[in-house]
Amino acid sequence: MDRTSLLIATMAALMACTTVPTLTMKLMSRDDGTIYTGTVNGNGRGSGTMSVTVGDKSCSGLFARGASNDSFGFFTTYGAKGAGSVGTVQSSGGTSTVKALMSCSDGKGIRCDFVGGGMTGTGICVDSTGHVFDAIVM
Q1: Residue 46, burial from CB neighbour count under 10 angstroms (0-12, 13-18, 19+)
Q2: Whether pLDDT at 54 is above 70
């Protein structure tokens, strides 16, 4: 197996072993302070699904990262007698913005905007009737 094939096989194996945890989302109504709990399931590529139950209605939908200051790059090093190696570098842990859109069982919807880093974030959500919720993901 040549070096390029080995590198590709190693990267594929590492990506297959990566697990993305289920995170908890909390929404607090600005009307009465009631806290609602939901879940966030990422796919490891900056998007995924989320769901929450608000009162007697279930809401679920998708989220996607809109922007971040993460970076990714390739590098090559050269040593004695022309020996070299290749690799990748990823810088993460910066700030990301995320948009979420959920539809609810009563025919209405909830839209959320989050800002965060790592696997936590804070934001604001608004439902179709104008009710506002403060939100955290952890």
Answers
A1: middle
A2: yes
